[in-house]
Amino acid sequence: MAAFYDEIEIEDFVFDEGKKAYTYPCPCGDKFVISKEDLMNGEEVARCPSCSLIIRVIYDPEDFQPTEEEAQEETEAPKPLEASNEIAVA
């Protein structure tokens, strides 16, 4: 088992909409990071990219279940391109 530097509630993190990740200040000056996708997959460890510290994220996994819209997007396959019978004339 890993030794956590601390245990922090998700409410204390800041959500970065662009990166779709939660961040929390690390004592080294950087930030602990955990992605929304990681939380949806049940991950509870946020890591600092600049040092070896890790923290345990306290959260309710039910709050990070995909919405119906997100679940539908994941199951939809890209539509194949339709073949065209038209001949391009130069």
Features:
90 residues; 14% helix; alpha+beta; 2 helices
Kindly report the average pLDDT value.
85
Helix content: 10-25%
Tell the overall outline: extended
The succession of helices and strands, N to C, reads EEEEHEEH
Largest sheet: 3 strands, mixed
Roughly how many Å apart are the termini?
A: 68 Å
Low-confidence stretches: none
By DSSP, the count of extended strands is 6
- The tally of helices reads 2
As laid out across the biggest beta sheet, the strand order is 1-6-5
Query: In terms of structural class, how would the helical and strand content be classed?
Result: alpha+beta
Strand content: 25-35%
Task: Describe the protein.
With 90 residues, the chain is of the alpha+beta class. Helix content is 14%, strand content 28%. It has helices at 36-40, 68-75, and strands at 6-9, 14-16, 21-25, 31-35, 45-47, 54-58. Strands 1-6-5 form a 3-stranded mixed sheet, with no helix packed on it. Strand 2 and strand 3 (21-25) form a beta hairpin. The longest helix has 8 residues, at 68-75. It is extended and about 65 Å long. The mean pLDDT is 85.
Set out the fold topology:
Elements (H helix, E strand, L loop, with lengths): L5 E4 L4 E3 L4 E5 L5 E5 H5 L4 E3 L6 E5 L9 H8 L15
Parallel strand pairs: 1-6
Antiparallel strand pairs: 2-3, 3-4, 5-6
Briefly summarize what is shown.
With 90 residues, the chain is of the alpha+beta class. It is built from two helices and six strands.
